[in-house]
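Dear support,

I submitted the protein below through the web form. The confirmation email said the job was done, but the results page showed an empty box. After a refresh the structure appeared. I'm attaching both so you can tell me whether what I see now is the final result or a partial one.
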Amino acid sequence: MQERYVDTPDALHALCAEIAGSPRLMLDTEFMREKTYRAQLCLIQVCDGQVAACIDPLALDDLSPLYALLFNPNIVKVLHAARQDLEIFLDLTGKLPAPIFDTQIAAALAGHADQIGYGNLVRELLGVDLDKSHTRTDWSRRPLDRQQMRYALDDVRYLVTVFDRLNAELARRGRLDWLQPDFDALTDPALYRNDPADAWQRVKGAGKLKPKQLAVLAELAAWRERKAQDSNRPRRWILADDPLLALARIQPDNENKLASIRGLEAGHAKKSGKELLEHIRTALARPKETWPRLPEFKRTTPQQEALSDLLMAVVRLRAEEQAISVQSLASRKELDALARGERGLPVLKGWRQNLVGNDLLDLLEERAELHLENAHLRIRKRTG
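What the results page shows now:
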């Protein structure tokens, strides 16, 4: 397989023209986000099975020849654990590459562990142990040495065979079409939208606050999210979670009280103190009916817990029959929710519904029953 390092406009045009006729394109990225809100794209790896290339976005002002391929509906973009990579291209272009094939999702349906890592999947399918020595490489530094480029290219070089084998296995099992709803979900821009109004839900420790404190937290978290987005800086650089929670609890109403908040650096208090106090006042002035509410905790009764055990038995049965991991089908938490009467769960959607979700519903709605047959558990449809 040819290897290329592409860092000039002419080389990029030549590469894209060469691989434009391929029906599938392996794709991966290397990025940094320790010092930014949005990921800083540092390297793009592509492979069509004949050519594997590292494209240097730090050296290229115009990536439009590559974008033409990524947005070409006739080329399937193959990635592993695609979400972060796709988000980068959405931030850069306002669009998402499509159609896509995520080998992590496909691997679960083919019997591998749920959310399996790329290295483990390559080992299981190909018997190859990938080099891990450059896991913490600073990909923004130049020049990249030969070992770094080889490491980066491994992420697409072996992906060709991984994709081919998963594709063939799922086609043999008649499951390829089952993946499409999962892939379509990854190309929905709404998945990547970080609404400042919802930012409080991602603050660890929010569940311990009282309703009025939650109102203050929601207001301050939205302010922090907007600041981080506008300045392209990490949230913690604007204000860390601990002082954010402390502000929500204590609700200072003047600069002296603000300065006493533990974890709030003097520089932050001086620079953003007036804004913080204003947002606290705004939150406290909101009517109670507008305050955010935590999801209601739903306790599982002993009867429901026993029913959840029964549902898990069905999941284990189907997992064994279909040579797929139990966790790939449903978690215990999900089955507890199902036993409590909740619906709209992942196990009742897409390919999971085909494999086990319909059986669970049949059991819950008394259209089927479990029975022992020669010491083996079986699901039997009820008649009449």
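Response: this is the final, complete result; the empty box was a page-load delay. The chain has three domains: 2-192, 196-290, 302-381.
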